[in-house]
Amino acid sequence: MNPIPLINRTLLLAVAPFIGMICFLLIFQLSVQLPELKRYAKTEFSIQNQLQQASQQLDKAKTDAAQTRTTIERFFQLYEQSATDVANLAKTADAASSKPAAIFDTRISAKLGAKPSKQTTSSNLDMKLYYLNEPNYKAYALKVDMKSDKALKMVLGKDKIGSSETTLEAARRYGAVAGINAGGFADDNKTGRRYPLSNTIMNGKFVYGFEPTFENLAFIGLSTDRKLIGGRFSRQEDLDKLKPSFGATFVPVLLQNGKKQAIPAQWQSSPARAPRTIVGNFKNDQLLFMVTDGYDERGNSGATLAELQEKLLQLGVKDAYNLDGGGSSSLIYDGQVINHPSDGKLRPLPTHFLFFK
Question: Is the pTM of this model over 0.85?
Fold first, then answer.
């Protein structure tokens, strides 16, 4: 067979499908759509727009954060300034509140002496000791501002009924900064025991039970709200109304509400002069204890009760009471005996007032 026609037929079969496809496209006129470039352009533009908006929002967030930080810093500055202002106001208020007390102390100091010879200041009390040189007697004045219930207490001699000890011994035993003798006493000659006189209260309770006032005796003590209380009581309920915390008994009442009280006749002359221990209070409830010196109990040295009444009024004392005196008068400060006991030594006593830092 001639090879040329064979080659031609082979080529024709090879290209026939392409020729058929072209004829089909020409007959039916099909079209093929290419992707729209505009759509892709719009999509690209939308993405760019979103990126721009996100960038703007991020910038705004940064700005807001900076403003917030500035506001917080300003707030803390105002807070610190306010705290400083409040602290300054508190200091001013404290200074203003303490000013009347300072004025009071200045006035009392001017009357008692230029400067205290001793003083103690703590969270419990503010205490100052003054030496007085009066025309007819020498005395020691202890001004006490109690700041807490722990400032002052009354103790029994050796903490037992019927026992006694000196004020110095009691102060050392308790670790007190100061001490003063308290109420009177009665001795049992058979047993040699020394008992507190009449109404005596410890920790809000009567040591013996209540005894109506007799022979011008007076109860002298401190209330549960740290106020000086005292007087003559025929009924226990009248004393109970004053809410006594502790106290002892002696004679007589010297001042009440800034007015002199009548001094019983026997106490005007028997003895006329003597070592004395008295207690009084000012209008602001500060206490004043006074101890006068005397070289014996025969009535020739020391102070009269009338002289002490005048001195107390001059100092502005409101209420005042006479405590046990004579050889019992004792004033202890910082472990030292301040007064000059008329016995030549301290007398053992059944009750003592002690002061604590």
Answer: no
